[in-house]
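Handout, section B. The chain below has 597 residues.
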Amino acid sequence: MTATTAADLVLVPRPRSLVVNGEGPSVDCAVVERRVDGLAPEAFELDITTDGVEIRHGDDAGLRYGRATLAQIRSQIRLEGGTHLPALAIRDRPDFAVRGYMLDISRDRVPTRETLERLIELMELARINQLQLYTEHTFAYRDHEKVWRDASPMTVDDIAWLQRCCAEAGIELVPNQNCFGHMDRWLKHEPYRQWAETPDGYEPVPGMHRPPAVLAPTVANAEFALSLFAELLPNFSSRRVHIGCDETFELGLGVSRQEAERVGKQEVFARHLERLVTPLCAEGREFLFWDDIIRKKPSVLERLPAEAVAVAWTYEGPKDPSNIPHAPAEVEEMLSDLDIELTGSAGGFAPIIEPLAQLGRPFWVAPGTSSWNSLIGRIDNAIANLTDAAVTGRAYGASGYLITDWGDGGHLQPPSISFGPLLFGGAVSWCVDANRDLALAPVLDRFVFGGAIGESLATLGGLSARTGRLAYNGSPLDAVMGRGATSFVSGDADASQLVDVVAVLDEAIDALPRIPLGCADAALVGEELMTAARLARQGAWRLLERAGGKVPDVTARRADLAESIALQRECWLARSRPGGLPDSIARLERVLAGYGT
């Protein structure tokens, strides 16, 4: 059997140009590999004719991708009992030179080495060429054991091992250490608390107290951050570094209040950024930082060196503003003061990156997997968000594309929930025109899981949109669990829809562990997805009860949640280090305690 049309071949990423011309040579025929001048970086040409197979490439990456594409074709023909390759011509090259994946390892879940190996395999399949591990407190800095002691952090040896794994897969490993905002895991300890913008915390609105999370923008704190980089960066061969600096919510409310009132919060932010990056630039480094704080005044970027690359992020697919949840007026005002615009996310990437493009400065786009605050994913939103980033980023000249995989709310979603979005994001960042309508389920079944589970993942990932409620940055099924997560929801639950949601979850809970898979982690995939579905069912029951529907009694729901928590522990320890588990599980145990005894 031989593929006779392009549609007969299941390839990922789909090639930019593929023409099938009938039957070619034996599936085991020899291959000629030839380096040629004039091909773009990472580009390759694959010709299969009756005379044989030839891969032309301009660099090592192009050769790697040409070989991988040929291997996919050969594997498919053999699997279908064929003896001859199809005659075809492929011409391929990437839309974005940098196609990265950033995994949050600071919201409790630090992956094991085996899990990192699994992710690298997927990245290599999707032609993702950069990996970042987002770090707040989970690197074992020599003089800061108080901060990371209970977190099972990455060590120097871990980074050396990971560096080797990435190099073998053609992936650049880039350090990513937040050093301005999101420092709460540091500031809860002494003496670090006194370095905060608001050492005693702050109230975004009266009566809502938040602990300190932002370092004051001082020379001393810049020197502290640079001391971290001095220890961290020598472990990486990359000359890039991501310094974070997002969501500095309380900036201008404490130590820097007078300066912010005089020159504006964005100027204060840019001045501190300059303290951080000037020494790094002197070392010949390119640095990345999140763009959210400077969005209201992007011109402040002009004070930064050319090596400063703003990473523009938004995690909602473009949608009608009526499909964005609305908070009460006072909360909307508070969010706006914190530079969070819920309705602004309806426009996708275009309104965010247009000002950056007009400045003529380099920038990246950063969509997300939509897995966090969801338990079972939000696949429709992920596809819309990832596609928008690729289309809009390419149109405005973004130089990089970074798929983010956050762990808000304790990173309760299992890694396998992110496998589909990771693969899709890699495909559209390689060539969005060829991959924006990629049928994800058969690709996952063939290349990732070795069995028919892709449709089940798609079905689970679509349930968040079937509750009657609107959500931002998460799923209503997760938000209703009251775990203090960072999603926003509004609207009324729909009982009729939720009855169907519970039925779908019931079926998945029964079926997932029994689906035969051919991947090395097959049993674990079934167990962790079943566990995630059970937790999502807890959320569906809560919503259904609020909508007046019939649900199991409290005793039954409490017993089910207790069993689900025990399963979550087992699945966590099979994928992740133990350090963050108590903190993450405590969020579920608070829900359990709410059922009473």
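Note. The chain has 20 helices and 17 strands. Compare this with the example in section A.
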